[in-house]
Specification:
The structure holds 2 protein chains of 2 kinds.
Chain A lengths: L7 E9 L5 E10 L4 E5 L6 H9 L9 E4 L2 E2 L10 E4 L11 H11 L4 H14 L15 H14 L4 E5 L7 H18 L2 E6 L2 H7 L2 E6 L2 E7 H6 L4 H6 L4 E4 L2 H6 L1 E4 L2 E4 L7 E4 L5 E3 L7 E9 L3 E7 L6 E6 L9 E5 L13
Parallel strand pairs in A: 3-8, 3-9, 6-7, 7-8
Antiparallel strand pairs in A: 1-2, 1-4, 4-5, 9-10, 11-14, 12-13, 15-19, 16-17, 16-19, 17-18
Helix pairs in contact in A: 2-3, 2-4, 3-4
Chain B lengths: L8 H27 L16 H41 L3 H15 L2 H12 L3 H4 L2 H25 L1 H12 L4 H12 L1 H17 L2 H6 L7 H11 L2 H33 L2
Classes of the chains: A alpha+beta, B mainly alpha.
Chain lengths: 350, 268
Amino acid sequence: MELERTSVQISQCAKTYPDGTQGLLSSSLDVYPGEVLALLGPSGCGKTTLLRLVAGLERVDQGGVIRFGTQEVTHVPVERRQIGMVFQHYALFPQMTVQANIGYGLRLRGASASQLKQAVGELIDLVQLRGLEHKRPAELSGGQRQRVALARAVAVRPKVLLLDEPLTALDAKLKITLRDELADLLRRLGVTTIHVTHDQQEALAIADRLAVMRSGKIIQVGQGEELYRNPKHTFVAEFLGRINRLQRTPQDIANDSVTFAQIAVPCPRGAWPELFVRPEDIQLKPFALNQPVGLITHRSFLGDRIHYRLEVAGQTTLAAEAHRDSPYLVGERVSFTIATEHFIPCESDQ
Amino acid sequence: MAQTHSPHRFPVTLALLTALVTLFMLTPMVLSITAGLVNNYSQGLASGLTTRWLEQVWEGYGDTVLWSLAIATACALITTVVGVPCAYALARTRSRWARVFEELLTLPVAVPGLATGLALILVYGHFRSFRQSFLFILVGHVVFTLPFVVRTVSSAFANRELIAIEEAARTLGAGFSRRLLGVLIPAVMPAIIASALMVFTLSVGEFNLTWMLHTPLTRTLPVGLADSYASMRIEVGSAYTLIFFIVVLPLLWGLQAIANEVQKRYGT
């Protein structure tokens, strides 16, 4: 089964709720045909509002335009917008069997009994629910319900697939399995997908591109790797993974360096008052003179790696990550190095 | 044996207490029922058993049983047909007026049935054929029981899960009537059945309001019961109670069984 690839163009869409709250400030975003785009941000950032605007479940404020391909859908009601949507808690029809849930949209479109049987059978194979056709949602596990919800949404061959936190209701381990399964399935279907999540790991694993949102605004859009390595915005740097914020004095800026415990470490040229560095880019070394030094105040063993917190004179506490066999313990003084290219500048703090 | 924190001691006291309370509740029922089956209540069982009072009651008041059941059935049907769409509308409206309306709708439950009855008589009493028909009583029962349906079903519709289910149906292309009939009403079916059952029960037992609305020719079971208590031998009144039990209990059990079955099929 392969679906139509439609682009989604969102231009200057805002949403003001009847009580006056601004759910979304004027935002524009292009989703390419067949792409999986994640809307990522903390709760209340407007990501669900944006998704519901695309779905047609909320009305866009005056002036906003939404297009699917060349067709403008801004005022097309949700029932005729030809989307598929997976809801946070699945919203399956409780009185219908798995089969009836998946076939619901096709039945509405007047599919014949034989067409219905074939299409539903195909979908049941696609999401691996063979044998559960006659069960009701209440008899299924969380993971199975999630698959029914997905099959039901793609059954109607939607132009755009919308996923609203599709994995939040699952436990941690299942989440990872289903996450990879979902990513694979979306690639096979080739359907243009907008995926809302607050979980950066999930966004990185599933989406081709990420749009990071905060306080009703889209802050930065790009591929996950690019956003992780070169965040343009401090919020993106801090939201995607863990990061340390480093302070620089005017003297540091003049010398192209960052100072740790009176030792200057060279960094890229630029007048940034702050620089960022990822915990995994801080290399811990045995104590040595003429190298930055920190005191280990905290150590947690995480299985594949060890997480440290270092107290460093002239900076706030630094987070560092090391291999699981790293020998340093709480109370020890260690030296560390940071490669010049690992300092991340951010242009904007807004 | 200082350590006899015997786990049996407390339950024994509890069992005794339970037995006492049960006895206290059951004795009047049993006495009342047997009173309807003996020849003479003041002489007790010694006067011998008879079904003569039962026959007398059935002859005099048999029609009230049928009318009561007919009114209760009609009442449950009408309140469901009127109440379910009303409940949906209230659950989906955020306006302040909807809340005011909901409060007004609940008034007949709070206001004594006598007052509701009087108001109905004042306004519609002069439509003689209406006033003298069972329809008049039915209207009173609908006014009194409608809030139970609307409240129960509207809170089921307002459930967040139901809101998401409705949105899901919309994204799949279901227009208003198709999602209401095909998805939403089946999804709240347990609440609808439960409220219809409650309306049926309330209507069968309703006395207060019905007493105001009835005429000598339009009497329901409870009104007939009051009548027989007031004007006939104690044995007849008791036989009437017995008939009430015989008719109503199996019916309620049957309906409850149906409701449970629905709950099992549709419950989430």
